[in-house]
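Q: I'm writing up a methods section and want to include an example of the input and output format. Could you take the sequence below and give the corresponding predicted structure tokens, formatted cleanly so I can copy it straight into the document?
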Amino acid sequence: MFVVLDVDNTLADTSQREDRWSPDAAINDPVIKGVERVITRFQELKYDFLILTGRPEILRDATMRWLLEKLNLALPETHLLMRSTGNLLTAAESKREQFLSFRQSLENHHTCFLFIDADVDACANFAPFGITLQAPGCWPSILPSL
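A: Here is the clean output for your methods example:
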């Protein structure tokens, strides 16, 4: 099973960030309540993770560092898909394109996917490919004891 996660407003609370695309600002985003326990549980279940974000590529290092430091989530570079420089698609469209490319690269195209994203349009785009949950409200329902 792949758990496909967005970052901004799904894992990270970016509501207080003024400079949206600064690596220095992004590294200090707090984790949304409940995320750490759910990620830990998914790790215990040996789920694979794919981070699919509308963040620009200039935030790759800051995002990888944030995932490791805040969530103890070490990913292969190929499992962090970000918006390329010059990509003018909406975040939802960009994520869908990147997901389809990633899925095509898998040996087993019938892999199960759980998508968690704060973007309603992204969730709608992912619905044909697996289960979609809207963040941040979904976190307490995944592990009700939160």
